[in-house]
Amino acid sequence: MKRKILLVRISSLGDVVLTLPVIESIKQHLRDSQLDFLTGAQYTPLVEQFPGIEHVHAFDKGEPFPLKILRNHQYDTVIDLQKNPRSIIMTARINPKNVSSYPKRRWQRELLVRQWPLKFRIGHTVDAYLLALARLKIPPASRIPRLALGEQLISSAREFIDKAALDGKIIGLCPGSKHFEKRWSRFDELARLLLKDGNRSVIVFSDNNDEFRADLNISSQRLIAARGLKFDLLAGIISRCDAVVTNDSGLMHLAVALGVPVAAIFGPTHPDLGFAPLGARDIVICDHVGCSPCSLHGEKKCRMPHKYCFENITPERIEKEVDGLINETGRGQILREASRQ
Questions:
Q1: What is the number of helices (H) and of strands (E) in the chain?
Q2: 287 and 268 in contact (C-beta within 8 Å)?
Q3: Do the Cβ atoms of 16 and 39 come closer than 8 Å?
């Protein structure tokens, strides 16, 4: 009888994308299993692109919870990668034979934020997710998120770019993030620098709720604004970029999974908290100042006289790293300048 497994990760975008190594490992070890996914409704179009997923259940805060539907599937195993009170209660009510979750390492991360003198090795979130499989005796296949999109979606993304008549090297800019404090504020200056080279084009990705203008106040035929797209089409368009510049955000992990080189800017948060990009050529730009990290997710307002963590991260510095990525000279590394104590 086919083993039926439900994977639970309702939010947020980056965490959902980081489940891809778990999915790959399950499908390689249990080839005949049925693997379904419960996620937030807004992420459903993207998760439907994940290889190996048969059914995607959408969780919408404004709609009744689909508990009866989940129970009717009679899942043998639930892998809870959300691990909050809601997901724990939901899993208990589904009543599977096996339940596995992951170590959230909340207190270790909190101590790092609070500048505790004793340092803990936190490890990457992907590695924590894979520990949920170890309890089920499923070996890891990979720790790198990998997402191959369907041909129809790739075709739609190609049409989007062709319609905009972009040519040359295409650089994606992702100025947004869930929490305001994580947002590097000079993406408009970076875009203008990039556009000085006539062989470059820019796509600015943003959400309908972002307060900045979709075109960054730049009028150029080589810059297009991609605002409010569904996550599947957004993924397709990102996959057509030669490099992407992001804050510490979900789009950073999505670009990594699509195999697009990423220059990721970290300030109030820090790669040591477990969310650094994992691609072989990705670059993390982090100055490792004494007051960083100051929060787990960038949710707390900066308490310093100036935002020291972003102070020396200039558009010129980012442009230089982008040049290395699009000319295939970049390497996966963390770039740090002198620490401010």
A1: 13, 12
A2: no
A3: yes
pLDDT tens digits, residue range 113-141? 877 665 667 899 999 999 999 999 999 99
The Cα 98–Cα 25 span in angstroms is 17
Delineate the domains of the chain, giving CATH numbers in brackets. Answer: 4-134 (3.40.50.2000), 151-335 (3.40.50.2000)
Q: What angle do CA 245, 249, 255 make, to 5 degrees?
A: 55
Q: What is the pLDDT of residues 143-174, one digit of tens each?
A: 999 999 999 999 999 999 999 999 899 999 99
pLDDT for res 108 = 83
Q: What is the predicted pLDDT for the residue at 117? A: 64
Chain segment 11-58, per-residue pLDDT in tens: 999 999 999 999 999 999 999 999 999 999 999 999 999 999 999 999
Question: Residue 133 and residue 36: Cα distance in Å, rounded?
Answer: 15
Q: Is the distance from CB of 288 to CB of 308 less than 8 angstroms?
A: no
Q: What's the CA gap between 328 and 243, in Å, rounded?
A: 10
| Residues β-bridged to residue 40 | 59
Phi, psi (rounded to 5 degrees) for 305: -60, -35
Give the residue from 332, 335, 323 showing the smallest Cα distance to 278: 332
Q: Under DSSP, is residue 173 helix (H, G, I), strand (E, B) or coil?
A: strand
List C-alpha distances in Å: 314 to 172, 189, 287.
17, 9, 12
- At residue 287, the 3 state secondary structure works out as coil
CA distance 279 to 42: 25
Alpha-carbon dihedral 64, 69, 70, 75, rounded to 10 degrees? 180
Helix (H, G, I), strand (E, B) or coil at 206: strand
Rounded Cα gap, residues 205 and 15, in angstroms = 19
Q: What mean pLDDT is predicted for residues 277-283? A: 94
Q: State the amino acid at position 288 in one-letter form.
A: H
Buried b (16+ CB within 10 A) or exposed e, 103-130: eebeebbeebbeeeeeeeebebbbebbb
